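Supplementary Text 2. Reproducibility record for the structural model of the 446-residue chain.

All settings were left at their defaults, and a single model was retained for analysis rather than an ensemble. We include the record here because the model underlies the residue-level annotations in Supplementary Table 4.
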Amino acid sequence: MKKTMTFPILLFVMLGTIRTSAQEKMYQESYLFDDVEAYLYSPDQERKKSRKFFVALKELAKKQNSTALFYLGMLQKEGLGTKQSFKKSLRSFKKSYELGNLEAAYCVGYYYLKGFGDVPQDYARAYRWFKKSESPMGRHWMAKMQFLGLGRKPNKAKALKMLRSNEIENSKVLLEQYETAQPPTGEAELFHALFEESPIRGMHELSNLHDVPDIQMLDGTWEGGYFELDWAKEKVLRTLPITLDLTKANGINESLGAKIKIADSISIDTGTYSSGALRFGNLTVPIRKQYTDYLDFTHLMTEIRGFELRICPYNGENLLIGRVNAHHPIWKERANPIIVVLKKKVSVSEAARTAFDEQAADFIRIYPNPVPDHCLINFELPHGAHVKVQMTNYYNTAPYHSVLFNGYREKGEHTIEVRKLPSRPGTYTLSIEYDGKIENKLIIKQ
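Retained model, structure tokens:
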């Protein structure tokens, strides 16, 4: 009798032990995933701990664990415990989705939306993967793509319908803004004037712009537009005013002090300049968001790491075109593609203003005269006209001719700063031509 009872009891104990072991294993995996989730957003990340998490997740991923694959993709994305690889991360997310993890589908869509690293940017794929995720955040981003016209024609009505049916708070906050706004037109006339083909992408890639400004030219105040593009570089999402004050540091080669103002935010840093590349180490600007998903999240900290600058002749003047390298520290990802188009602000000192007043009877007013290495030319137009400013040598002993400005100017007073002057001292004729008239003035070059 005792023998007949022994086997069922042992079997019961064994099954209970197996069940307990399986439960403990599930608990251990659950704790691992919770720990990794917290670690991803922790400021205290260590190489040894990152590697430990990566190895543990990789072992589980080999056993076709969808959650382990999802978090493995997150570590590969951030470069924690392994070399950063967006391509490997994408593969992990896709495999996680195939095993049933819908959240991974949202991550795949996000990769294609922005085109991280070596992952190609593709709006059509992004939209499909957001739809596959069946997640509220996927639907939230689908609504954004509909409103902004990313990879499709802007459709405000469809975007609003999606947001109204989405239960998350992000969509409710965004809905209030979209209801009173219009989708961006994506147009920028200046871009089309400068680039006939693919104007926006061409501007961002600095196509056909080979003239690199020297550091002396950059010294001064530049004003213009900060153009935030979509990720495919097909349209302008918004334009913000920007002022860039650059000051050459005395005694320090290729160093520029910078004060940057974008909309209502200001930041200051010192950058290094070489061959068109202006680099910063700590230039972070809180830029107001175009649309926000959170009521108390109105500005996004943007780390401007540098500008790639070129000179672009336009309407008789030299514009400064810059491709911006910017990142968002809070998201650990690069910002939208950004272009700046800047025009140098002419600074008129009290001494120059006094000199112009003393020459009030003349159409052309010069400061200083005699001229050292640069000068200011001041004149006033009775109405808008095409203006051509030229300089020729007076005695013709050594032929010299230079067009200093050739473009349209509105009615009113204008001041042009001229830095490209003849190196040879002597007397020169400065002429301004407009409406078939020519005004002349002699200047002396020191």
